[in-house]
Amino acid sequence: MAKFIGILTAGGDTPGLNAAIRGVGKAAMNTYNMQIIGFRDGFRGLMENRIVRLDSVALSGILTVGGTILGTSRDKPHKMPIGGKKMDMTGVMLENYKRHNLDALVCLGGGGTAKNAYRLAQCGMNVITLPKTIDNDVAMTDITFGFDTALTIATEAIDRLHSTAHSHHRIIVVEVMGHNAGWLTLGAGIAGGADVILIPEIPYDVNKVAESITERRRSGKHFSIVAVSEGAMSTDLAKDYQKARDELDNAKEKGDKPARKAAKAKLAEIEKRRAASTHELTRQLEQLTGLESRVTILGHVQRGGTPSPADRLLASRLGTACAHYIDEGVFGVMVAVRGNDVEPVPLEDVVGKRKNVPLDHPWVCTARDLGVSLGD
Ligand code: F6P
Predict the structure, then answer these.
(1) Atom 14 in ligand 1: residue holding the nearest Cα
(2) What top-level class would CATH report for the domain 150-303?
(3) Best of 177, 199, 297, 303 to mutate for ligand 1, by most ligand atoms within 8 A of CB?
């Protein structure tokens, strides 16, 4: 009997999502004789039963297209915003899953999506996820699709910033996305030849950054490129952040609601300071070095457009492997890249974890050996 599978894309869009949808769909139809439907706009579409039939016509011509043909959202099954309230809609999602006689639900997303998919698996759905995010921060997989494209875009931006920084003898601070992980900034910083790379894993001392730029100037280099992660923090901000986090954890442990509220307010305040910190850093560097400074925020440019060949390949490989695992009845897993292999990893080993850059990672050592300042 043919199996019926549903597929959705959740969280921020990523180049390679359509290649993955196509990979799952083509292998499911051609190799395993399955039928496939898509839910629109992530978990919200599953709740609202908004579907699209993914036949061979729908899957044609999408390999190179950026974004996701299904649409996406950051809505969570157990906290769905409805009429100004957040409601647990997992029951409704289960009903819709049954209404379509689904044998499996494929969720394409990052760490947050894996967590939400795990919740649905605990409700009785046969769930399987694929790791996508430009941030490359999903635990238990060596790489996520979308990362390579974003890395390429950020590197190209740094390449382009070099000539203008050089011509004007300026510091250019370029902010790179990547949430709370430094993979994109570190990778693009090294590949693009940045002089300073600041990542969330290594809190920076602005005086040390300024010293390294002044040192470059003394050696006759009158411009510098500073690549900074959107999640990077100065040592002072990192201390305040850690204190507020500890307060929140304590309050949670004691069940102290007012203390919990206060710690959350502090964290929100720190978040605001962090969001403004790239501009603040640029201003400080201008003051400390006497070099004119400019800031460039790459933002969503990094997520847009056609996926790189490496991402198309990875997404196709993970998508087709996913159809194979569905056929074998392997559920409650994320299809992960481990070394040269693709493997199913239990979702409980993925959720609640984040893959940050280890301080002794080869890329960190490479940057240091190249004489790049990491701000510490
Ligand atoms: O997770 C992908 C990502 O692009 C992060 O790098 C960034 O912090 C976040 O999403 C931005 O989210 P949004 O598109 O919702 O503003």
Answers:
(1) 12
(2) alpha beta
(3) 177
**Would you say the CB of residue 12 lies under 6 angstroms from ligand 1?**
yes
pLDDT tens column, 277-323? 999 999 999 999 999 999 999 999 999 999 999 999 999 999 999 99
Distance CA 257, CA 251 (A): 7
- Picking from 66, 374, 5, the residue whose alpha carbon sits closest to that of residue 194 is 374
Span 225-238, pLDDT tens digits: 999 999 999 999 99
Question: In the chain, where are the structural domains located?
Answer: 4-145+307-349, 150-303
Looking at the predicted structure, is the pLDDT value of residue 1 above 80?
no
Architecture of domain 4-145+307-349 in CATH?
3-Layer(aba) Sandwich (3.40)
Asked if domains 4-145+307-349 and 150-303 share a fold, the reply is: yes
Whether 2 shows a pLDDT value over 90: the answer reads no
